[in-house]
Each structure stands twice: as C-alpha cells, then as structure tokens.
Design goal:
Layout: H1 17-27, H2 30-37, H3 44-55, E1 73-75, E2 78-80, E3 84-86, H4 100-110, E4 114-116, H5 124-130, E5 135-139, H6 145-157, E6 162-166, H7 176-181, H8 204-211, H9 219-227, E7 232-237, H10 240-248, E8 253-256, H11 270-281, E9 286-290, H12 296-304, E10 309-312, H13 314-345
Parallel strand pairs: 3-10, 4-5, 5-6, 6-7, 7-8, 8-9, 9-10
Antiparallel strand pairs: 1-2
Helix pairs in contact: 1-13, 4-5, 4-13, 10-11, 12-13
The chain binds ligand FNR.
Ligand FNR binds next to loops.
C-alpha cells in the first residue's frame, strides 16, 4: 500500500466525453446549456443518433500481431491525424472568450481539421492565425447571395481549404428548449464574419427564418463553383437518393448528418442510414458522418459502416466550456486515445483496414 488516494471529482481530468459534458453543464447557464444540447421537437432524433452508436458492437480480435496502430488518414488530399474533424458550430465564444481561436489551436495540436461555422464568433483571419491544421468553411446560403459570396471570399483569402454547404436548413427546426427560454444571444456574442449592420442575429431562430434561403435547389452547387475554386461538400444528406443527386451535381464530399437532431425530429439516426449511402457513393467522393459520436469506438463503428471520417460536435463545446483551448484539446485527445484503444483491441492496423468485418452481430436492441 502506498497510501495514495485516487484524485476524485473535479481534481482530475475527465475520463470520458460524458464527464466533460457533465462538467460543462455545471459551468454554463441553463439557457446556454439548452441552446447547445437541445434538439428539435421531442428530441427523438437527437436520442436516436446516440442510441445507434450504443447498439453497435465491435468484435475483439486476438493475436493479430498489430502492435502500434496508425489512426492517420487522407481526406481530400490532406493528411489528418485521425479520421475526425470538428463539426461546424455557431459561436464558440459562448463557451469561452477565445472561441474558435482556442478550438483551432486544439484541433491543430491533434492534427485534426476544424470546420468553421458561418456564425463563428471570431474572424476568419484570427482563426487562421491560430490554426496549424486544415480549416474548412461551413456555408449557410442566405437569401442575400452577395452576403454569402463575400463570406466565402473572406474565408478563401484567409486560407480555408474547402466549403461545406449545409443543406438541411431551408428553415431552422423548432427547438423547443430555445422557444421556451425565448433564447437570445448575450449582447457581446455576434457573428464576426457577417456584416453587423445588415441583420439582427440576436435570436438564432428568428434570424434563421428571415435570413436563410428556403428555396435552395441543386443548382446552388454550380453557383458555389462560380464563386469559389475550393472543393465543395454538402452537409445534411440522409438518403442514398440524395447522395446520388449530390454526386451528379459534382460535389467533392458528403456529410451524412441530421444536424445533431436539431432539424427534422423523427429523422433516423445518421449511423442507421450510413451503409446504404456508402453503397450509393461507392468511393466516388469523400463520405463523412456526424451526430452522436461520443467515444473513440464510435469513430471506428462509423468507419466500419463506410464513413471516411466523422465530425465531432457538442463534445468540443463541452471541452471549451470546461477549460477553453485546453479543454477542447482534452476532448480531442481523449477521443483519439479511445480510437487507438479500439483499433488495437480489434486488430485494426490502419484506417483503411476498417470494414464491416469489425462489426459483431446480432445487434442487441436494448
Ligand atoms: C450546430 N450545428 C451546426 N451545423 C452547421 O452546419 N452550421 C452551424 O452553424 C451549426 N451550429 C451548431 C451549433 C450548435 C450549438 C450545435 C450543437 C450544432 C450542427 C453540427 O455541425 C453537427 O451536425 C452536430 O452537432 C453533430 O452532432 P453531435 O456531435 O453534436 O451529436
């Protein structure tokens, strides 16, 4: 006996993403917590995303001789430290004053890309100055195309490497928590890359109604090509049919996403629609997924079902809320450590080795 007592509670770093979430909850005001955690409607889709990963079983493999596994991968011609990027989320400045600059530093330390939201709280130039890994711009296409075009030009000038057009938001889903709270952004929170004088951004739901173009169609891809030379991904595809249409429209990548359960409540879990979409895509463009990834083994589960990489959403905000950039780095480091554990224990030497043979069946339905 050494007489050493194990550190407990807040004195040790969180051991899981759920522990980060719990600590973030105690630090954030209830309305801010509701804004980041909430989903649309009865939050069925929000719960389904997570439940689909909870149901997934991976087969342990033994005496594989794998030794050190290599979680790095190549997406759109760029090397990533692991098949994980930070999902676009509005206003990291709500979590910590450093906002997206802190997230960019954390992502860079882990060698992971950051997808910067149209509603970032720090300027593209500030974020680019902090970044050491690829930055992508998430694009909301506004009724005012000129505002959208100028946003893209600013990101491109700051060195961003791809555009991720969010296609699941012709209007914002009804997020009941925000409606109940009559949620408004605190006065010091504003989009740093949109013209301050042209719109009132204080209520995200109201701005969504007036600002977003509700009538977008597939011709928007050609428009994006006309204003930018960057690769284009579409985020929010949930059916094989739409994946085929996206490829026909010439996209470079697809993100299978239901917006973290914040848009159509009752939509399926992203993981549950991945396999048919992967079959339709058949390697013709990059295929990413988000929604409910909360452990390294979830990343491996998504790869097994055909994703090239995943985006991690809310947990990164939790890390920021807990300890700014160090917290975001802690979250990403934990996911990578868990991914490496899952790869080792399943005998998966490289990301390219992940396929359906990893999956153990039958799934339990609990
Ligand atoms: C988002 N998401 C999002 N998506 C997008 O395309 N543009 C955006 O500005 C935002 N903003 C945003 C804010 C907050 C607070 C959340 C929680 C989410 C959706 C996000 O990119 C992603 O699809 C989901 O968050 C992924 O699910 P998980 O990982 O949060 O379960």
């Amino acid at each position: 006996m050494t007489g050493r007592t194990a550190p407990s509670g807040a004195s040790r770093p969180p051991l899981s993403l759920d522990e980060y979430a719990e600590r973030a909850r105690t630090r954030l005001g209830p309305e801010i917590w509701d804004f980041i955690e909430g989903g649309a409607g009865e939050e069925r889709t929000l719960a389904a995303n997570r439940a689909a990963f909870d149901r997934t079983r991976l087969s342990p493999r033994v005496l594989t001789g794998v030794g050190e596994c290599d979680p790095s991968t190549t997406v759109l011609g760029r090397r990533w430290g692991a098949p994980v990027a930070v999902a676009p989320m509005a206003y990291h400045t709500l979590m910590h004053p450093d906002g997206e600059t802190a997230t960019a530093r954390a992502a860079g330390a882990a060698g992971l890309p950051l997808v910067v939201s149209t509603f970032a709280g720090r300027t593209f130039a500030e974020i680019a100055a902090a970044a050491t890994s690829p930055l992508w711009l998430q694009v909301y296409c506004f009724r005012d195309r000129d505002t959208t075009r100028r946003l893209i030009e600013r990101a491109e000038a700051a060195g961003f490497e791809a555009l991720v057009l969010t296609v699941d938001t012709p209007r914002l889903g009804r997020r009941l928590r925000d409606l109940r709270n009559d949620f408004r952004l605190p006065p010091h929170i504003a989009p740093a890359n949109l013209p301050a004088d042209e719109a009132d951004y204080s209520s995200p739901s109201e701005h969504g109604r007036t600002g977003l173009d509700p009538a977008l169609d597939w011709s928007v891809i050609a428009w994006l090509r006309s204003v930018s030379r960057l690769p284009v991904l579409v985020k929010g595809v949930m059916t094989a049919e739409d994946a085929r249409r996206a490829i026909a429209a010439g996209v470079d990548g697809i993100v299978v996403s239901n917006h973290g359960g914040r848009q159509l409540d009752g939509a399926p879990a992203t993981l549950d629609v991945l396999a048919p979409i992967a079959a339709a895509v058949d390697g013709r463009c990059a295929l990413l997924l988000d929604g409910g990834v909360r452990r390294g083994r979830d990343v491996l589960g998504a790869l097994a079902l055909g994703a090239d990489a995943v985006l991690l959403g809310r947990p990164v905000l939790h890390g920021l809320a807990v300890a700014g950039g160090a917290g975001a780095a802690g979250v990403l480091g934990l996911v990578l450590d868990e991914l490496s554990e899952a790869m080792t224990l399943t005998g998966t030497a490289t990301v390219a080795d992940a396929d359906t043979s990893l999956l153990a069946g039958p799934e339990d339905t609990a």
